[in-house]
Design brief:
The chain is an alpha+beta fold and 373 residues long. The protein has nine helices and 13 strands. The longest helix has 23 residues.
């Protein structure tokens, strides 16, 4: 005859007790309490650019500085979320931290264009409302991402550029700086080296400086791409923010993918995306909206949609990376370049930022380096 052992007996009598308790509660007119469904898990994901990133070209001090910069940006954004703040406030805080860091190609660390001028651009999107704001061809606005957000929050405009955008920033009390604020030694030497590498540019009247290549430092391993952040807050709302100095020695007046809605940036009620890489390819592909549509129409996870976008990017000759998060907290950091400066923070990381740079690192289950087979 079957006789329950000690452990099985305990489970058997616990079950009987639970059923008796439920019947007694119903007899007394009380309904057993239902478990509260867990709310959204506040999450922030950031990137500081993607491209040719090789560990052997980086000194230990440079790597330490870069990791510290990524950590600070992630920490700043997550602190907003953990204190009950909005996704919009979180991504602005994270991106401003990178704009103020001369190591990243945004704000203070922006690259120079062909005329030796820093031209900056940014885009902000609020997934809850679908609102967007963009600004481009900026030369004196200290934090372009804040201007993009102010444009988003206006009732009249979505996209401003050049002197008019800078006047808009002044009228709203944003920080305005002298163009010299954006000058950094390593970016200037990148600018010089790019001229020396180009035979056609060596005779151009726009060339500035006369140093030989042996006298110029090689900073090609430092972040050259866009910076960005995506976040999910405790209320289940999403937001994204992207900012950049563009490509080194770009033509004067060139506008990249960053301020173009749906190219390098997108946020709606279901997913938030920020991209970095070869901007012209992101524009042609409509990368951010391509990912959003795959997620919404095909039901793909951010990881699958991001991977498909990067595979297609590689096939057409581009490179770069994307970060995404959806309303369930599923995230991805997917790139088809040699590396991507990246980080994220949530309860899954014990509220401590996780940081990665190289393709050999895997800081999250869906931290993916995509290669063509």
């Amino acid at each position: 005859m079957y006789s329950p052992n000690r452990d099985e007996s305990g489970g058997f009598f616990s079950l009987i007790f639970a059923r008796v308790y439920r019947l007694a509660a119903l007899a007394l007119g009380k309904r057993p309490r239902k478990r509260q469904a867990a709310g959204p898990c506040p999450t922030i994901v950031i990137h500081g650019g993607a491209g040719t990133i090789r560990k052997e070209k980086m000194t230990s001090a440079e790597e330490k500085e870069l990791r510290a910069g990524l950590y600070l940006a992630t920490e700043r954004g997550y602190a907003v979320l953990r204190s009950g703040g909005t996704a919009a406030d979180a991504v602005e805080a994270a991106v401003r931290a990178m704009e103020d860091n001369p190591l990243f190609n945004a704000g203070k660390g922006a690259v120079f264009n062909i005329k030796g001028v820093n031209q900056l651009e940014a885009l902000f999107m609020d997934g809850k409302t679908g609102a967007a704001g963009a600004a481009t061809l900026l030369t004196v606005v200290k934090n372009p991402i804040t201007l993009a957000r102010r444009v988003m929050e206006s009732d009249k405009h979505v996209f401003l550029g050049g002197a008019g955008a800078e006047d808009y920033a002044r009228e709203r009390g944003l920080d305005i700086v002298h163009p010299a604020y954006f000058w950094t030694k390593h970016r200037w030497e990148q600018h010089e080296r790019d001229f020396i590498r180009s035979d056609s540019a060596s005779t151009s009247s726009t060339r500035v400086g006369s140093q030989g290549s042996d006298d110029i430092g090689d900073y090609s391993h430092l972040p050259m791409g866009t910076v960005g952040a995506v976040a999910l807050d405790a209320a289940g709302n999403l937001a994204t923010a992207t900012s950049t100095g563009g490509m080194s020695n770009k033509w004067d007046g060139r506008i990249g993918d960053t301020p173009i809605i749906g190219a390098g940036t997108w946020a709606d009620k279901h997913i938030a995306i920020s991209g970095t890489g070869a901007g012209e390819y992101f524009i042609r592909q409509g990368t951010a909206q391509y990912i959003a549509l795959r997620a919404s129409l095909l039901g793909e996870t951010p990881a699958v949609a991001g991977r498909m976008a990067m595979l297609e990017m590689k096939r057409i000759g581009g490179d770069g990376g994307v970060i995404c998060v959806d309303t369930t907290g599923r995230l991805t950091m997917t790139f088809c370049s040699d590396g991507m400066y990246r980080g994220y923070c949530s309860a899954q990381t014990d509220h401590i930022p996780a940081i990665g740079i190289f393709d050999s690192e895997k800081i999250a289950p869906d931290d993916n380096h995509v290669v063509l087979s």
